[in-house]
Amino acid sequence: MQLTDLMIYSGTTLREALSKIDRNGMGVIFIVNENEQLEGILSDGDIRRALLKGSNLDTAVTSAMNTRFLSLPVNTDDLEILKHISDRVKIIPLVDKAGKLVDYASINKLRRISIAAPLLEGNELAYVTDCIKTNWISSQGKYVRKFEDLFAGYHQGRTSLAVSNGTVALHLALDALKIGQGDEVIVPDLTFAASVNAILYTGATPVLADVDPITWNIDVEHVKKLITPRTKAIMPVHLYGQPCDMDSIMQLAVQHNLFIIEDCAEALGSFYNGVPVGCFGDVATFSFYGNKTITTGEGGMVVFKDKAIADRAATLRDHGMQKTRRYWHEEVGYNYRLTNIQAAIGVAQFERLNEFVEAKKKIAKAYNEAFSQLEFLQVPAAIDNTSNSYWLYTMLVKPEAPFTRDELIDYLHTKGVETRPVFFTMHEMPPYQNFGAADQLSVSTRISDTGISLPSSVNLLDEELAHICHCITSFCNKIEMTVAQ
Ligand SMILES: Cc1ncc(COP(=O)(O)O)c(C=O)c1O
Question: Which among 93, 108, 391, 404 is least surrounded, fewest beta carbons within 10 Å?
């Protein structure tokens, strides 16, 4: 249920309140003023009593509402909320510092600060409505082209192809470069499994490289040792928004005649030497899954340096069907297209990209300020010549800390704060165990064991941010005191 289903403005009547209560099925409605500050609560019982006392359905809601009500600050943790929920109080309004109604809690919906929620309050609905009204709901249509053009414009004019998700974006990129059986592709051991899965789909062999202890991205010195005559490509992944060391990677590519496929799924809005990531390699891929910096629900984009390879990929994206001869296939292709409806959301999201990235940077700055002095935490390093878009703010619990990363995660869970551990290393999981030697992947193992990502939604409230910082700081300080005793 949306918050709007539970709120009504103070200028309305009992009739409107009753009809909304009837629709929301909660037996209650919150009354707000024009600034959406909470003024009262009205239950169906309150309305019944008011009618019995002589009010009618055209009476103002304010005359029947309860002004002595329970509300809680939006950053109240689950345990505290639970103390107030009872048979009598089934739903509790949550307000910000200014008293504005911003959420609600019930037994079925305890307040959680989510890790990365989408924000769809721009032109998304208008553009999607346009698709439906004009009947352009499939993968033809102006929004697909517009989304691709916006991406090309952002990435130095490189041809961009919209696809159905970030995983097929990687597969299409590799296939368009004709990477397959007998080839090796060097990929970091610390990434989301899609990077490695896409290599396996082509029949090529992934070769797992360790990561750098400072950037947590692919370690170029280790990559040098892994290059063999069969190496065809390197797939740097700009993890959590931190750009890889692209100068060194491109130097290796030139020296050894290798393709570079940049996996930018987590790094739209990140820059290296003032240039957007995705503009360095032969091909770059992006994801628009619901938790990404911009989203289309599911979706992806492939950005090409070479127009001829982009043309081949466009054919492969569309079943391999010849552009000039309908239903004629020279090779086996795929249906990897994005729909016009998804692209419509993407265009609206892209319009707010800079704003979203700024919001994420602001969140990261606040976390850095709160945690950089804490003895047991290691905040992400600021790397020269790179601009991190901080898709997910991620930090490490130092090995000498008297608590584990998982204990911190469990504690934050009780405080209503959703977190994520860093990815498992690829080499420790059954399908990938043959692609890397554990003793050469020690940095990725340490980061995987100790890393934690914190809520990084672009609409994270200041109160929520303060709550998270307070919880982590007090957890660390309390433990520090216990250790000192
Ligand atoms: C590094 C990386 N590569 C690829 C993907 C795959 O993208 P999608 O989920 O859109 O298939 C993701 C994430 O979701 C990712 O984090």
Answer: 108
Distance 289 CA to ligand 1 centre (A): 8
pLDDT at 46 > cutoff 80: yes
Which atom of ligand 1 is found nearest the CA of 291? 14
In this predicted model, what pLDDT tens digit does every residue of 49-103 receive, in sequence order? 999 999 999 999 999 999 999 999 998 887 788 789 887 888 999 999 999 999 9
Backbone phi and psi for residue 168, each to the nearest 5 degrees, phi listed first: -70, -25
Q: Decide the pairing of beta strands 394-397 and 451-453.
A: antiparallel
Chosen CATH of 3-106 out of 2.60.40.420, 3.10.580.10, 3.40.50.2300, 3.90.1280.10: 3.10.580.10
What are the tens digits of pLDDT across the range 200-222?
999 999 999 999 999 999 999 99
What class does CATH assign to 353-484? alpha beta
CA-nearest of 421, 425, 420, 443 to 435 is: 425
The pTM of the full predicted model, rounded to 2 decimals, is 0.84
- Amino acid identity, position 396: L
| Predicted pLDDT of residue 478 | 81
pLDDT at 484: 63
What's the 353 CA to ligand 1 centre distance in angstroms? 18
Probe residue for ligand 1, chosen from 174, 216, 289, 302 as the CB with the greatest number of ligand atoms within 8 Å: 289
Ligand 1 interacting residues, C-beta cut-off 6 A: 165-167, 191-192, 194-195, 237, 263, 265-266, 287, 289, 300
DSSP secondary structure of 59-95: SBHHHHSBSS---EETT--HHHHHHH--SS--EEEEE
Residue from 115, 165, 189, 192 to probe ligand 1 pocket by mutation (most atoms less than 8 Å from CB): 192
Distance (Å) from CA 483 to ligand 1 centroid: 40
100 flagged as catalytic: no
Q: Which of 292, 305, 360, 415 is catalytic?
A: 292
- The H or E element that residue 311 is part of is helix 307-317
